[in-house]
Amino acid sequence: MSEEQTRQGFSADHDAAKDGQVRHRILEGYDAGEQPLQSYTVLAGVFNLIFAVFLLLAKGTGRGLPERIETRDIVLLGVATHKLSTLIANDAVTSFLRAPFTELQEKDSPKSVEEKPRGSGFQRSIGELVTCKFCMGQWIASFFTYGLVFVPTVTRLVATVFAIVTVSDHLHQIYKALSNRA
Predict the structure, then answer these.
(1) Model pTM score
(2) Mean pLDDT across the stretch 101-118?
(3) Cβ distance 156 to 71 under 8 Å?
(4) Helix residue ranges per DSSP H, 61-151
(5) Is the CB of residue 92 less than 8 Å from the CB of residue 110?
(6) pLDDT of residue 106 exceeding 70
(7) Is the pLDDT of residue 7 over 80?
(8) Which one has a higher pLDDT value, 26 or 93?
(9) What does the CA dihedral 60, 66, 72, 74 come to, rounded to 10 degrees?
(10) Which among 94, 112, 91, 113 is positioned nearest to 103, based on CA atoms?
(11) Cβ(60)–Cβ(83) under 8 Å?
(12) Residues in CB range of 7: below 8 A, 6 or more apart
């Protein structure tokens, strides 16, 4: 190895070590490295990249963004987002989606499970995302909204299915509560 290559290699190693020290100082005292901050950054970047692609596709296809979204669509998509985020984050039937990123804690009922994220880094971050109905809600609401711009009829149809199931779920709970009272 020439002297120049040795200096370049040393310089690259030195720069990498210096970058690591800067990152360490920035995050020092935050959480002793327990939170997968780099993975969170990647997920936030993916979320924003999808949004940017949506905006570019909307512009490129000549679809204008709605000036405002009708109240009935907000209610429909809100109820559907509630149901779908709960379905993805808690239901036993969707546990196969979460299994690579979570570990089973207990089965609350035949239809609901309690899980916690497992692993580290990206695996853990995905586990936290898919077990949090509030976190999933943000992603699902975004996709429903993108769908409303590109394929409004299909989006409303899919959202209607989840909204109907939500109403049905609440009726079941009311019926159960009234039956237990009698």
Answers:
(1) 0.78
(2) 85
(3) no
(4) 71-90, 95-98, 121-130, 133-150
(5) yes
(6) yes
(7) no
(8) 93
(9) 70
(10) 113
(11) no
(12) none
Residue-wise pLDDT tens digits, 41-83:
999 999 999 999 999 999 999 988 999 999 999 999 999 999 9
CB 106 within 8 A of CB 114: yes
Tokens of residue 156, six digits: 């409303």
Between CA 165 and CA 84 the distance in angstroms is 10
Q: DSSP letter at 31?
A: S
Q: Which two three-digit tokens encode residue 77?
A: 């998509």
Tokens representing 167 are 């109403």
Q: How many CA atoms lie within 13 A of 24 on its CB side?
A: 6
Measured in degrees and rounded to the nearest 5, phi and psi for residue 78 equal: -65, -45
Q: Residue 127 and residue 97: Cα distance in Å, rounded?
A: 10
Amino acid at 55: L
Q: Are 85 and 140 in contact (CB under 8 A)?
A: yes
